[in-house]
Design a protein that fits this description.
The chain contains 15 helices and 11 strands. By secondary structure, the chain is α/β, with parallel strands linked by helices. Strand 10, helix 13 and strand 11 form a beta-alpha-beta unit. Helix 1 runs parallel beside helix 8. The protein starts with a helix and ends with a helix.
Length: 408
């Protein structure tokens, strides 16, 4: 347990240095000290935890906010919110109230909100037989999340609520996994009224992120290296890297470094980051499977959105062809709305417009008004309420009303 001791030591150093320079904790966010349930309850919302088991044995928790503080408390319409890579359900509540958090806004406006967590997140580190420290546990990518996690969640929600359909919202990988499910298990499309995708990843033909491109080009070497070195979880859980960063972000001395690191990862400073919530954002960063990242690298390098490429020999055994076929996105007919930005250098606007045009029923292309809006601004912008959440809610409501009218 040497690592654990190191982590405590690090926290003490951070807090110590910070008090020495006389500023103490700069950015103490009350919610950092609360559990997810406590955080939701503290804002006056009801919360439930539900456990589901996927076809392939992963045990995942979902948080449910069945209704809001205002408005109706019965007959709410179910909506599933899915996070991206390095995200989890808390993404949709870290901005507190006043419409900054999509989950509360939806709960107050007639929705029964379910916060999904994929395998590997802090709420998805259990399996009926595999140990989360084993290589086998981490042998998954966005493919399995789309094939098994999403269907299990959707079935569970519809069963619990006795409804026929739900709404879906997905950020980044939350879009990719929806494409996987909708194209490969098309029967699930009937269970979704509308999928609203925020900066969805998937088509990566226009990916020009100069920081990440060199890694994607070397994905084969990196895959071998990760395999030999047994690096199947990133960063390794025992490092507690994100908890360290979360602590550091709460202190005056490290604040600037923290903000800088955030802008590096999110692809620039749009001037919209809500710096107050950074400790909370880092607190809820899960680790991810190395394969998840490498699968995106394959997608970028090949220009094809398709299942994992094992190399010719194993592909022949598994898929009966030298390379896997692309996911048939042209078959997707479920209504889809896209929210994206020109300033996003992880999910490129042109790719999102292309996939929208390829699908049969993409009903909205909503380009963010601030051209510098980044990939992470979809979760942590100061202006989330007015720039994204409210227009998103309004569209979902209009769509829902129109769908109901069509039914008569
Ligand atoms: C929150 O959003 C609703 C619905 O879009 C709007 O009517 C309300 O004024 C907003 N509230 C705040 C505090 O901005
Ligand atoms: C996609 O549509 C084509 C043409 O209708 C069909 O042949 C194919 O089986 C579909 N793919 C899947 C995975 O359903």
């Amino acid at each position: 347990m040497k690592m654990k001791a190191d982590y405590k030591f690090f926290v003490m150093i951070c807090l110590g240095v910070s008090s020495l320079v006389g500023q103490g904790i700069y950015n103490e966010h009350r919610d950092v000290y609360l559990s997810t349930e406590e955080m939701i309850q503290s804002y006056g919302y009801p919360v439930e935890i539900h456990e589901i088991i996927t076809e392939d044995g992963y045990i995942l928790n979902m948080y449910r906010i069945p209704h809001g503080k205002v408005g109706s408390k019965v007959n709410q319409k179910p909506i599933l919110l899915m996070h991206g890579v390095y995200g989890q359900g808390e993404n949709y509540i870290v901005n507190g109230i006043n419409n900054g958090s999509l989950a509360y806004l939806l709960a107050d406006n007639g929705f029964d909100v379910w916060l999904g967590n994929s395998r590997g997140t802090q709420h998805g580190r259990k399996h009926i037989s595999l140990n989360p420290t084993s290589k086998e546990f981490w042998d998954f990518s966005f493919h399995e999340i789309g094939m098994y996690d999403l269907p299990a969640k959707i079935d569970y929600i519809l069963e619990s609520t006795k409804k026929e359909k739900l709404h879906y919202v997905g950020h980044s990988q939350g879009g990719t996994v929806f494409y996987v499910m909708a194209s490969m298990r098309p029967e699930y499309q009937q269970k979704v009224t509308l999928a609203s995708l925020l900066a969805p990843g998937g088509y990566e033909k226009h990916f020009t992120n100069s920081f990440l491109l060199p890694f994607t080009v070397r994905h084969r070497e990196l895959t071998k290296l990760a395999d030999v070195a047994n690096i199947y979880e990133l960063p390794p859980y025992t490092m507690k890297l994100f908890q360290m960063v979360s602590t550091a972000c709460s202190t005056a001395v490290f604040r600037e470094i923290c903000v800088f690191a955030y802008h590096m990862v999110s692809g620039g400073d749009s001037g919209e980051l809500n710096e107050q919530i950074l400790p909370l954002v880092f607190k809820y960063l899960p680790t991810v499977s190395t394969k998840q990242l490498l699968h995106y690298a394959q997608t970028i390098a090949s220009g094809h959105m398709r299942p994992w490429d094992y190399g010719t020999k194993k592909n022949m055994e598994l898929y009966g062809q030298p390379v896997p076929s692309d996911y048939p996105v042209e078959n997707i007919s479920v209504p889809m709305a896209m929210y994206y930005s020109l300033g996003d250098n992880l999910a490129f606007a042109k790719d999102i417009e292309d996939i929208c045009d390829t699908m049969q029923n993409c009903v909205r292309k909503f380009l963010m008004p601030n051209e510098k809006w980044t990939h992470m601004d979809f979760l942590a912008s100061k202006n989330l309420a007015h720039e994204l959440n409210e227009p998103l809610l309004e569209f979902i409501q209009d769509f829902e009303n129109a769908a109901n009218l069509d039914g008569f």
